Amino acid sequence: MLVLHSLNFPPPFFIEVFGLGMLSFALKRIFRSYRAWTFLLILMIGVATASFEVLTPIAGSMSSQLESYTKFATGFVTMWGGSTVGVSYFNPFHPQDFPGHYPLNITKALPFNEDNIVKISSMEGVKAVYRVVIMSAAYIPPEEEQERLLEERRKMFPNLPISDNLTLMVDMGLVGVEAEAAQAGPLPYANIEKGRFLRARETDTVVVSNLIEKNWGFTVGEEIPLIILKEERKLKIVGVYSGLLPTAMDPGDTVVMDLDALFRLLDVAPSEGRYNALLIGLREPSLAQSIVGALRRGYPQAQVHYQYGLAKTSIELLSSTANTYDLTRNLLLVVSATMIVLVRLIDLLRHRRELGLYVAIGWRERDLLKYMLWQSVIIGLMGATVGILFTVAMGGYLSEALIPERLKYTLIIPRQVPDPHLLPFALLIALALSTLTFAAGYLHFRRLTPLKMLEEA
Amino acid sequence: MESLAVVLKGVGRTFKNLPIFKSIDLTVKWGEAVAIVGPSGIGKTTLLRIIGTLDNPTEGKVRVCESDVNTLDTRELAELRWNCLGFSFQEPVLLPGLTALDNILLPCIPRVGPAELRQFKERAMMLLEALGLKDRIGFKPHQLSVGQRKRVDLARALINSPKVLIADEPTTNLDEESAQIIAEMLKKRLEEGFAIILATHRDQNLLSMASIKLELLKYQS
After folding, report:
1. C-alpha to C-alpha distance for B65 and B3, rounded to whole angstroms
2. Considering only CB atoms, which chain B residues are within 8 Å of A353?
3. Complex ipTM value
4. b/e per residue, A388-405, with b = 16+ CB within 10 A?
5. Domain identity same for A267 and A396
6. Which of A22, A173, A402, B207 gets the most CB atoms within 10 Å of its CB?
7. What is the CATH number of domain B6-215?
8. Is residue A132 part of a domain?
9. Which of B15, B53, B164 should be substituted to probe chain A, the one whose Cβ sees the most A Cβ atoms within 10 Å?
């Protein structure tokens, strides 16, 4: 190597020139040879089959997982108290501070308590009720941000004297959810872009909206400081999401944590818990209207929505995507198969002279048959095998590349490799096509004299 | 009754209703050479192809190596071609992807096992050496001259030691050296008792070795 290096080998552009030379050689060979075309086409069949074997399960998996997320078969209902509450709303729950004294209109701000939940849970057709608290908490941006914010504030209110020493706080949404709600379905909008979702009973960890990442630069692995009950709490970010709750409930720049953990932070006993939103999973879609009606009548202060249409549309879209993949694959297979037969036939006709020579020099019919059959089979097998191996190798990459980044963390899509039945299936197609072509070629040549075959095609 | 290499009786061939030749009778004994002569387009190649079982006559009977060609099915014809006949084409028909040696071995490939193939390989090497192509064994057809290709084609016709060798203008358009080598090879075959039927224009070397000269004349009805 050293000697080669001292001789300045490879010379400049050697690799490029060599590579181009090889490529041009390969292309020339391919375009000149019908057998190479056949090989390429069969390889394409392998790739197409395997690719769609990868694609279809992705769409199918997305569809079925979305289905499980949204409980497509049952649908779900959201109940929303109508406003985001401040941290101070929870002060009444602190008996040591305000024993037995509720100065705020708590029932309006946090309309749901455990009694309501028990009542709703017992309604016919209700499968599960998940509690949600949507509130706001203060965030104090760092100094460099303070300057920018002050500047913005001065521009916004030019007549208002704003001191340089003012420390600005920003309201962020602080949402408590039951992590199980994500698993059970009624958190349909949770698109985890980075990291992961909360785990049940996990404390001091949060997921943040992508707006927080965009506006404030916090991301997975970092801690976000929030002022909760006058104390700065540093919460570890484990995920970034792009949507979690229906738009009406979504406070924007939001930090989401486990509901129990939030109550612990707020020093609220679970039995004292009140909630401003509920997510209700239903058993039967047919009961949805009556349940929604009953909930609206029973809780006139709440906004009750039946979240079914969106889920259904999404699922239908994904199902149709899976069907489209299937159809495209089948079409591609038919087109490729037809092309293979045609190219193979042209190839056989073009090699009529060669076959004529074999007859002329004493090859028996069975020798010719064997030769033609083997040639077809070998080309078929090689093409299919290389195509499939190529795609199996590419399968992981395809799975990664084809799933949008924002969906990767929400929908758990297993690494796709073509099904085990694919190889025999593709080989069978290749063999069937080869044999078909061979049979057609053979029937054609059988009628000819060696002389006719030896004539230029 | 004496065994005969080739017997033609009343053989004729028409092409698109136009007769090329008619009523040809020919008897070739073992160790005999026949030179078919005549101007271009007269039907020399067609007659050779009929004897070589590559084409069918429109009339008459063809008998080669004691087999009545007209009555043979494809399997029997293939056996006849392998066991008895060697055909050297006017324009050498070689497979471009194969080397000279592989082209020569082509007739044997489906017929013999690996051990026997080795023997045929040795024979092919001997033929190539005898034809002055020892150093061209691994060459592909496009790397060979016309004369060399013709010699490879002849070697292939000889690989299975055919009892009847049919050579279509084996020396035409060849340099003197190539023509000489081929003529020598054919002479040797004759001496070994095989029959040779060849078409030629006016190669004296070939004409001198032929015991029968069959001149084809333009057919006039």
Report:
1. 8
2. 93
3. 0.89
4. beebbeebeebbeeebee
5. no
6. A173
7. 3.40.50.300
8. yes
9. B53
